[in-house]
Specification:
Three copies of one chain form a homotrimer. With about 350 residues, chain A is of the alpha+beta class. Chain A has helices spanning about 145-150, 160-165, 200-205, 280-305, 320-340, and strands at about 10-15, 20-25, 30-35, 40-45, 60, 65, 75, 80, 95-105, 105-110, 135-145, 180-185, 185-195, 210-220, 225-235, 250-260, 265-270.
């Protein structure tokens, strides 16, 4: 399936971009990115239009890039500023430039038409700037799988009991039904597991020993940003669904970036209403997340490899697939809209009148 | 060429299968195999019908397998016994199950229609249960080559002089003609090298110092089980062909299992009428076999790689190819029979009468 | 693009060929080469016509090769001399033999029709046998790139300033225009950089400290042999172009051999009019050449990888591309001539007269 181009994807954390040229690939497009002397991150097509050497093999001259083969030079807007050996700069001497937006330490890139890139639509949450919440960036998890399978996994609470039995799930949730609805452009899948033993994560970070009420809310924003709102509270409180802030609450964020059809990077981080300012706790949580995400990676890569093999039968769908099914449907609609929107006005048929 | 499916292939030795889930591939089909609590070995299609995760990535729950992604569970007959999150079990929730038969410490699998799997047709020899003979299992030799080339090599005595000059052959046999005939469903290629120095193998295990009569009988049973009856006797005895049991006699068995078009496993073992009960001798023979089989592997992999390259001319056939030629012909006939047998009754043409 | 077959390519240095069988690939054709007892180097198709084992996996029996599978034997002309197990030698039992010519320690092979192989057309220079000049063989640089890109780089002086800033070029030449002309079958690109600081190479080997006049003449002989005549002289001499022998002058030779579409070996060596007989200087020069050629290799492999990726736009051509453009045009003409020359006489159309 084609990628959705007119969308913001995460290229990396702010800390990933500085003076050096960084080569990366998003939606199959190779990019060279760097931070200019004014602090702005720029992203260019990573291929010199002359002999096609990746510009990331060249070097920075001020805020421009000089190609490493014959010295052709481009500025941060992709415009050629020098062709050694000649005075004129041909109109065809340019590289594509991409819209970039940086916020909360996250660098977003718009892979489609830059004139459509509206920074108001970049994903945001009020908790990023709420002093009662702590934000902590993790890493980028590299997965040899299609991004749709990675994103689908993030609107699928049912896998947690089986894939993460020691960290994020346990047997108590195996048969608890999943609710699915949509909230504007987001898909939400959730369930509460009431009055059950705490999972490993909250034994460690909630200090719970007795039974808890536990919730998982999976919000998936098209095309591929997920917020997993999960937490626990003492079962004695019988916490109402809307009072989750009274429990220990964590937002695990996943920015799922398609690299190629077969490769995805999941930049993960979290926001939490506990242990604010405690970086030791951040490190311990990261360690636990890494165990869980390595479990996802193994499953997702094995499924991806199987999808590449011949199939005797069409895969079946079951009750817990409601979230993934809605997600796939919306992605197909978005792809269809993008691939047809440039066709222009419908052509009126011409009738030829026969005598 | 398609694989022959309605046939018994060796999946492994009995010792290879226990409580753990074993993933393997035969005739291009991925399988998960394990031994149930009643001691029976079962073989299932290694792909969950839901999200296609290999079931071998899951875990055993009693005699069933629970998928590692969403917990869908299958018994040893491939029938789904649980779908977490719902009560009904859809009819499409199953995996294929394969017929398995275990005998003499060897596990056989029938890759085709299980209703055609007749255990009376599993390869056998009376010497397996003859106390005057000693059976010793070797290993599984992995070869990056098509199984037909591996099997063809086992009805081709002529290669021994050139590929195994220090172990199983020597120069005395280079020009001795090969006889080929068929015995029912088996192809037999053989030759006697009379009154010649013993080969390395029988210098060591026969205790021969003077000249010997040496024989090689290659029996190839379709699709790919080989018995190489070879041995030596003092040349002074002038041994008749049917008195081979009076010499030192070994049956080298090769169970050639197609994994993919480009990968084959040769499970090898031997039966012998000498050194019965002497496991030190078994180890010494295995060491010598391993030298010889590594020589075959090198040749077969190099030929396979060449077959993948473009060819300017069709390969030529020479006199010593009679055994391989008969084998290829019979394989083609079997494949043709399998691929056409499901076409049903010929359809009678319909004539439309015009006025 | 198809390879040019009716041409001499360098298979290796004389020191590379002896008694042992050497397997190599040129223009996509696998070859086995060895030196016979009379000192002649022979080259045969590296594939037995019987079961396709590479003959290089066999062994020499005198001046013949015995196949490692069934002992079929071929002489240095590719003629079969033995088929074990039969007396007659079938006419189809042969391998192709290629014309080989050895001169100045270099082994050339003609990949096309041997009857067209004219040793008078093997590349030569009078300086190979001039006692005032010193010849020194380097190595074979393996490059994962198409040979046309490698050869094009050798008629492109403009890349030197950017790819080799510390060894063979420096910033003084960045904007000096390149002249291009043709001399018979060779393409020549050259420029003089007058009254400028010496490059690293001539600081070391010319003993220059003040400004020099520096020249680069790139001669590219079809299909892929390059002579780079480069040197320096004290700027005070204001050296005329034809008096280059009065300066420190080096001919860097590159014999570019296509292995496959994606792999090339560049056998490089040099001739020099300085430090004659001084092998320590040879070693020091090689060390500097290796730095520069590793820089070329990195660029060429990155360009080749990019050429394999989908292209949104056609690459652009700029002023400095004149040499490469002429080269590409001549190669296309040669390929077209080779691929059409065997079509024979045009077939006269047949007219059928209707009543």
């Amino acid at each position: 399936m084609p990628f959705i181009r007119n969308a913001w994807y995460v290229a990396g954390w702010s800390r990933d971009f500085g003076d050096d040229l960084v080569a990366l690939t998003i939606t199959g497009q190779t990019l060279v990115m760097y931070r200019t002397s004014t602090g702005e991150v720029v992203a260019l097509e990573d291929r010199c239009p002359h002999r096609q050497l990746p510009l990331s093999k060249g070097k920075r001259i001020g805020d421009t890039i000089q190609c490493g083969y014959h010295g052709m030079t481009f500025n941060g807007q992709g415009k050629c500023t020098r062709v050694p050996g000649q005075d004129n700069l041909p109109a065809s001497a340019y590289v594509d430039a991409y819209a970039v937006h940086e916020r909360h330490g996250i660098v977003w890139i718009w892979m489609g038409d830059p004139t459509l890139a509206d920074t108001d639509t970049v994903f945001d949450l009020p908790e990023f700037s709420d002093p009662a919440w702590h934000a902590h960036q993790g890493e980028g998890l590299h997965i040899e799988a299609n991004y749709l399978n990675v994103a689908e996994n993030l609107v699928d609470p049912a896998h947690v009991s089986f894939v993460h039995p020691t960290t994020l799930g346990n047997a108590s949730s195996e048969n608890v039904p999943v609710h699915v609805s949509t909230q504007g452009k987001a898909i939400v899948a959730w369930r509460w597991i009431r009055d059950a033993p705490p999972i490993g994560f909250f034994q460690k970070f909630g200090g719970f020993s007795g039974n808890v009420d536990r919730w998982h809310y999976y919000y998936l924003h098209l095309p591929s940003t997920a917020v997993i709102d999960f937490g626990s509270a003492d079962a004695a409180l019988n916490l109402p669904e809307d009072d989750r802030n009274k429990g220990v609450r964590i937002f695990a964020l996943h920015f799922v970036t398609p690299v190629t059809e077969d490769y995805t990077i999941d930049h993960w981080m979290h926001l939490r209403n506990t242990a604010v300012g405690d970086e030791a706790a951040s490190g311990q949580m990261d360690a636990m997340f890494k165990i869980a995400f390595a479990e996802d990676k193994e499953i997702l890569e094995a499924c991806h490899a199987e999808e590449k093999r011949p199939q005797k039968r069409k895969p079946i769908r079951i009750a817990i697939d409601k979230g993934p099914n809605v997600y796939r449907k919306r992605i197909r609609d978005l792809v269809e809209a993008e691939t047809t929107e440039d066709l222009g006005e419908p052509v009126a048929p011409t009738f030829i009148q026969h005598e």
